[in-house]
Design goal:
65 residues, 77% helix, globular, YjbJ_sf
């Protein structure tokens, strides 16, 4: 699934994101709104990941949808 599709159906995707990244709160997921750069930033912040690693994990998650 590409990021435009994810952003368009974020309300449905939030549950899947929550299952993958349990440390993200509902408010943070709402704030992310399906935007890859927002998700990557939160993954860096919450999980202490480097940007490249956070992007890789976000892309893997999107490809698995």
């Amino acid at each position: 699934m590409n990021w435009d599709q994810i952003e368009g159906s974020w309300k449905e995707m939030k549950g899947k994101a929550r299952a993958s990244w349990g440390e993200l709160t509902d408010d943070e997921l709402t704030q992310i709104g399906g935007k890859k750069d927002q998700l990557v930033g939160k993954l860096q912040q919450k999980y202490g990941l480097e940007r490249e690693e956070a992007e890789r994990r976000a892309d893997e998650w999107a490809n698995d949808l």
